[in-house]
Amino acid sequence: MAVWDFAMPSPLHLCRAFHNSWASWTASEARLRIATSASDTTPLPAEAIHAPPLPPPVDTVYCSTDAGFSGPDRSPTFGFYVRSMDGAFVAAASGPLACPYDPLLAEAMAIHEALSWLQEHNYHNVQILSDCAVLVASFRDAGSYRSYLGIVLDSCLRLINSFPACSVKFVRRGSNLVAHALAKHVSAVEARTVWRDSLPPFISPAMI
Hints:
The protein is α/β, with parallel strands linked by helices.
């Protein structure tokens, strides 16, 4: 410790000196941060801040998907329902899946079935709708799944990237009743079926 004039500074003097130095340093750092922030930040124009989201392309189709397990042997099935932006019927399909009793895997395979059909029939702008929130979130980190689910997710992502515009979104079960009914109907276990003219008769208008 330094000594001036053969006398040591008192503890009170040292505390006051420290607090004064600390206050000066923190004030200087604060001014520096404000100046740096102001120089590095480019303000967004007002029209960018308040701009509404862009609407989807006019030829976008919405495709609701679902999976289910039927009967005592829990046979896995899928269903999907395609409609235009104005709600007009486009197509519907259902059929069996080849997978074990794994609800998340079955949901992923149902989306894969829908994407494959949409690609095969030359649809370009697609929104896939699923009521499985866990699956929708899984697409953000598909590479972390070291299982057959990861393989299916990766295959789905390859299909998604083949479309000019395609996204997977979560919807509540109440908005996914048609796809759910298609997947759970007994005909889905027996064979793959595609409807192009109208929805099958077992779909009630209240579900749409």
